[in-house]
Specification:
Number of helices of chain B: 6
Structural class of chain A: mainly alpha
Shape of chain B: globular
Largest sheet of chain A: none
Number of domains of chain B: 1
Distance between the termini of chain B: 28 Å
Helix content of chain B: 10-25%
Order of helices and strands of chain B: EHEEHEEHEEHHEHEE
Radius of gyration of chain A: 21 Å
Largest interface: A-B, 51 and 54 residues
Strand order of the largest sheet of chain B: 8-1-10-9
Radius of gyration of chain B: 16 Å
Oligomer: heterodimer
Order of helices and strands of chain A: EHHHHHHHHHHH
Chain lengths: ~325, ~180
C-alpha cells in the first residue's frame, strides 16, 4: 500500500491543479493561428505575390490583428490581478517565457500594421482615401515589402514557438515538460492558419497551394505528436504517466477522436482528394482542422495540469 | 550570506496542526486557503507499514521555478536568507508560478496575487522564529541559517538522516525532513 493524506485543499490547486480554464487554451490557439498567418502572409510578401491584388496577404494581417487582440483579451481575462498588467512592461525577465511573449507581442503589432498598410482592402480604402495615399507610399518598393515579409515570418515563428515554450518550461507538469511542444504548437498554428486562409482566399491557385501546404503541415503534426508521445513514454515514470493521460487515460477519447481523428486524419484525407481533383474544395476540412487545433490546446492545457510529480519519498 | 531553511523532525511531528493554525492567524491567511498543511504518508505491506507525518509548506527552493517563470519579477529571492517571496504590487496573477511549483505550495489570494509561505520573514527579521515553529508543541521544527555551521539546523542536517521532497524536480529545496 501507499497512501497519502493531506489536510490541504486550496482553491484551484486541489485535488488537481486547475488554475487555467478556457482563457489560456483560447489564447494559445489564437496566438498560434496568428503566428501561422504571419508566416504565410510574410512568405507571400517575400515571394512578391503582392502584384496580385487578390492575394490573401492583404486580408490575413487585418484578420490576424483582430484575432490576436481577442486572444490577448482572453489572456487579460485570465489574470487575477488585472490592474497590474502594465507591470509586464516594466521589466524583461530572461528566464520567463511569459516575459518574452509580452515583448514579442509588442513587436508583432507593428509588423502586422506594416503588412496591412501595404494594401488596404478596397472597401476600406474607398471609404478612407487617406489609407490609399498611405499604401501608395509602398507602391513599387519591393525590397521594403520583402523585408516586411521577412520580419513577419520571423516574428510569426517566434510567436508560434513561444506559445509552446511557455508551457514546456513549467517542469512541474510532466506532460508540458517536453522540448518538442513548441514544434507541435507551431505546426498546429501553421495548419490552422493555412486552413483559415484557404477558406478566405479569393485566388484559386492560392487556395490550391494552401490546401497542399496544409496537407504538409498536418502530416508533420502527426509525426510531431508521435515523437512527443514516444519521448514521454521513454522518459521517467511521471512522464510515462503523463503520456498515458493522452494515450489511454481520461483525455484519450477527446484526444484521439477530436484532435487526431477529426482534426488531422480526416481533413488530411479530404484535402488529399481535393488537391488531386477527386472532390471539390469545401470549407469542411479547414473547419475540422481549425477546431482540431483549438481542442488540441484545450487537451494539452487541461491534461498538463492533471499531470504531476509523485508526491512521495518512500 | 545567510541561507534560511527548516528541519522538520518527522519522528516528533504528530500532525496536530498547531502550525497550520498559527500560520493562518499570524499571516491572516484567508478562509479556504493554507500556506502550510499536514501530510501523512503510509507505505508498505501489513504488518510492516511505515508512517510519516510531516508539516509541509513552500520549500524556499534554491533554484525556484516560480522565480524563473515570473514575467514581472514579483517572485524573487529575498536578500535575507534567500527566502522566496512575492511582491504583491508587482504580481499580475498570471498563475505561471502556481503551475511551475512541483509542491503546489502556491495559491491565488482572493485579492488577486500569488501567495504562499514567507518563512514569516517579518518575524525572522526581528530575530524571532516563524509562527509555525514558535508554536509547535513537540518542537519538531527548527528554523535557521544553513550556511552557519554552528547553527542548530546545520548540526541537525549534519547529524541526522533526512530527505527532501521531490528531489528529482531539481529545485534544491531548503526544507529538510529528518527521519
Amino acid at each position: 500500500m501507499h497512501e497519502l493524506t493531506t489536510t490541504r485543499h486550496n482553491h484551484l490547486i486541489d485535488p488537481v491543479l486547475h488554475v487555467w480554464g478556457w482563457e489560456i487554451p483560447v489564447y494559445l490557439f489564437l496566438g498560434g493561428m496568428v503566428a501561422g498567418m504571419m508566416i504565410i502572409s510574410g512568405y507571400f510578401l517575400f515571394k512578391g505575390k503582392t502584384k496580385n491584388t487578390d492575394c490573401s496577404c492583404f486580408l490575413a494581417p487585418l484578420i490576424s490583428i483582430v484575432l490576436l487582440s481577442l486572444g490577448m483579451f482572453a489572456l487579460f481575462l485570465d489574470l487575477e490581478h488585472k490592474l497590474y498588467v502594465w507591470r509586464l512592461y516594466t521589466t524583461f525577465e530572461i528566464t520567463s517565457p511569459m516575459s518574452w511573449g509580452a515583448w514579442i507581442l509588442l513587436l508583432v503589432y507593428p509588423a502586422l500594421i506594416a503588412n496591412i498598410i501595404i494594401r488596404f482592402p478596397d472597401k476600406l480604402s474607398d471609404r478612407f482615401p487617406k489609407l490609399k495615399e498611405l499604401s501608395n507610399k509602398f507602391a513599387g518598393k519591393y525590397f521594403l515589402i520583402k523585408n516586411i515579409g521577412i520580419i513577419n515570418m520571423m516574428l510569426g515563428a517566434m510567436l508560434g514557438m513561444y506559445t509552446g515554450v511557455l508551457l514546456s518550461t513549467l517542469a512541474a507538469r510532466p506532460l508540458w515538460n517536453t522540448s518538442i511542444l513548441w514544434l507541435l504548437f507551431l505546426t498546429s498554428g501553421l495548419s490552422g492558419a493555412a486552413a483559415f486562409i484557404h477558406m478566405i482566399a479569393k485566388d484559386v491557385e492560392e487556395r490550391e497551394l494552401l490546401a497542399k501546404a496544409d496537407n504538409g503541415f498536418l502530416t508533420i503534426e502527426i509525426f510531431v505528436i508521435a515523437l512527443m508521445l514516444i519521448g514521454l513514454l521513454t522518459s521517467t515514470e511521471v512522464h510515462k504517466d503523463a503520456a498515458t493521460l493522452l494515450i489511454s487515460g481520461s483525455f484519450a477519447p477527446i484526444f484521439w477522436v477530436f484532435v487526431v481523428g477529426l482534426g488531422i486524419i480526416i481533413p488530411l484525407f479530404i484535402q488529399l482528394l481535393a488537391v488531386n481533383h477527386k472532390i471539390k474544395h469545401t470549407p469542411l476540412a479547414p473547419v475540422f482542422v481549425i477546431l482540431g487545433g483549438l481542442i488540441l490546446r484545450f487537451v494539452i492545457v487541461q491534461a498538463g495540469q492533471v499531470s504531476h510529480y509523485i508526491n512521495a519519498h518512500f | 550570506m545567510s541561507r534560511f531553511g527548516m528541519a522538520i523532525d518527522t519522528v516528533r511531528c504528530v500532525g496536530c496542526m498547531d502550525c497550520v493554525v498559527a500560520c493562518k492567524t499570524e499571516n491572516k491567511v484567508p478562509e479556504g486557503f493554507n500556506r502550510d498543511w499536514i501530510t501523512e504518508e503510509a507505505f508498505g505491506n501489513f504488518p510492516n507499514i511505515q508512517l510519516e507525518i510531516r508539516t509541509e509548506r513552500c520549500n524556499h527552493c534554491e533554484e525556484a521555478p516560480c522565480v524563473d517563470c515570473c514575467p514581472t519579477g514579483a517572485s524573487h529571492y529575498h536578500d535575507t536568507g534567500g527566502v522566496v517571496l512575492v511582491n504583491h504590487n508587482e504580481c499580475i496573477g498570471c498563475k505561471a508560478c502556481v503551475a511551475s511549483c512541483p509542491y503546489d505550495a502556491r495559491f491565488i489570494h482572493p485579492d488577486g496575487y500569488a501567495d504562499k509561505c514567507t518563512f514569516c520573514i517579518h518575524r525572522v527579521e526581528k530575530g524571532e522564529d516563524p509562527a509555525c515553529v514558535s508554536v509547535c508543541p513537540t518542537h519538531c521544527m527548527t528554523f535557521g541559517d544553513l550556511d552557519d555551521p554552528n547553527s542548530k539546523i546545520s548540526k541537525l542536517v549534519k547529524s541526522r538522516k533526512w530527505h527532501v521532497l521531490k528531489p528529482e524536480a531539481g529545485t534544491k529545496p531548503h526544507i529538510y525532513y529528518l527521519t
